[in-house]
Amino acid sequence: MPETLESLTAKLIDYNRKANETFTKTRERNADGDFFQEVKPFADEVKRASDRWREEASRQAEFLSGVGITQRQIEMAAEHIEKLSIQAFFVKTSRYTFVNSSRTVDFTLHDLMEKLRRSQPSEPAGGAGDRLR
Q1: Which residues make Cβ contacts (< 8 Å) with residue 80, sequence separation at least 6?
Q2: Of 22, 86, 96, 97, which one is least surrounded by beta carbons within 10 A?
Q3: How far apart are CA 82 and CA 80, in angstroms?
């Protein structure tokens, strides 16, 4: 089953949440994450999801533009989440910068998710309905 823009957006929302949890845990234990055991695998996973999300968003650029989401917002959210997936593992990461970048990502992803859900046709009562995306 192909991934939809909605499912990819949900995945990035989850990765952003995980990055925040990791950032908090890293601060609490006051030790950087192991690069090969923790940082790289997580960052690679986020990068793959982010790249797929970007591709799907560019395929739906006309829809996104119609609901007020620009390609620049998509690019910035993708860049931020990729950076956050690495920065979360390092104690010296600026809390201010991390939190603000994470909030920017969160806002963009939730705004997109809301607009995607609003654009879907209503499902028949008691049925699953067909999804266009």
Answers
A1: 101, 102, 104, 105
A2: 96
A3: 5
| CA angle (31 as vertex; 29, 33 as ends), nearest 5 | 110
**Segment 24-33, tens digit of pLDDT:** 999 999 999 9
Residues 6+ apart with CB under 8 A from 81: 12, 15, 16, 19, 46, 50, 105
Task: Show the DSSP H helices in the chain as ranges.
Answer: 5-29, 40-59, 61-66, 71-87, 95-119
pTM of the complete model beyond 0.90: no
Give me 56's structure tokens: 């799907």
Contacts of 28 (CB under 8 A, 6+ apart): none
